[in-house]
Write a structure and sequence with these properties.
single chain; seven-stranded mixed sheet
Length: 292
């Protein structure tokens, strides 16, 4: 069994409650995950001061870390930096590694940079992401080198592969269908992402009908930002992984501490990830009420 603390969209520059960062670090460190995953949008406008604050937070986590950038980690208004050095501050303050890897006896986790300075969304904003053919060849090479002996394979991006349930399709990574061809051929089990500030999960085949392999896609909400969506509180995912079982525990901020609001369990039966339902604690209504 392995555990991942999945944090996304911290957006330094939009944090309204300074206590939330301290509480997040304390909560994750107390639980001692196998790996800490940060799936992009560390900053709001890719400024040095925001990156510096993000780097200081990341350094406080005790667990091994795997980080990928998001679209907000590319400058928006500094056009020269956006097109000629889009991740200069990311490399300066966070890491120069845009293809991060974590491996142990039970788990392989690979990160992909989907942030692009030139990818327009459907409404004209520079926020969508893309996976290139070059990245897919590299990903395929790395995944095929991974031993198959019961080791789970996880891929981390900022942009998700599936939309939130009941919402219009938006924010999905470009070239997703082609990427899934490679991911399924390499036996990927789980995808982690953020971007939409909404926590949800499901089989990629519900949205990508051509995909044959059941791959579980898990999205995290925003852990610390004031840019909340869908009435959801600030939260991160605590993910427990076994070869044929994944449990997603949402740890949400209630104004004083991070507490469990839901636990969703998926089991793989005959190769298919199937939800076992949600266990909803009495904290959820209390947290939602405080936000209203």
């Amino acid at each position: 069994m392995r555990t991942i603390a999945h944090i996304s969209d911290v957006h330094f520059g939009t944090i309204r409650d300074a206590r939330i960062v301290d509480a997040l670090v304390a909560d994750v460190n107390a639980r001692a995950p196998t790996l800490l995953v940060l799936s992009g949008d560390l900053t709001q406008r890719a400024r040095a001061s925001q990156y510096r604050a993000a780097a200081e937070m990341i350094a406080r986590f005790d667990a091994p870390k795997l980080v990928v950038p998001g679209n907000h980690d590319v400058p928006l208004y500094n056009v020269v930096a956006r097109f000629f050095a889009p991740l200069k501050n990311y490399a300066r303050f966070i890491t120069t590694d845009l293809r991060p890897t974590f491996e142990d006896e039970e788990l392989t986790v690979l990160g992909i940079n989907t942030a692009r300075p030139l990818t327009l969304s459907i409404n004209g904003f520079w926020k969508d992401g893309r996976i290139s053919e070059e990245q897919l060849r590299d990903l395929q090479s790395r995944l095929n080198a991974t031993p198959e002996s019961g080791r789970m394979k996880v891929v981390v991006t900022h942009h998700p592969f599936i939309p939130p349930p009941g919402e219009r399709v938006h924010g999905i990574v470009h070239n997703a269908a082609r990427a899934l061809e490679v991911l399924e051929s390499c036996g990927v089990d789980v995808l982690l992402a953020g971007h939409l500030h909404m926590g949800y999960s499901g089989d990629v085949r519900a949205h990508h009908e051509a995909t044959r392999r059941s791959i579980l896609s898990i999205q995290a909400g925003t852990a610390t930002s004031g840019r909340l969506r869908g009435g959801e509180p600030n939260a991160y995912n605590w993910i427990t992984l076994d070869p044929d079982r994944v449990a997603i525990e949402v740890r949400a901020w209630d104004g004083n501490a991070f507490r469990t609001t839901t636990v969703t369990e998926f089991r793989r039966v005959d190769g298919v990830w199937t939800s076992q339902g949600d266990e909803i604690t009495n904290h959820k209504s209390q947290i939602t009420k405080k936000l209203q």
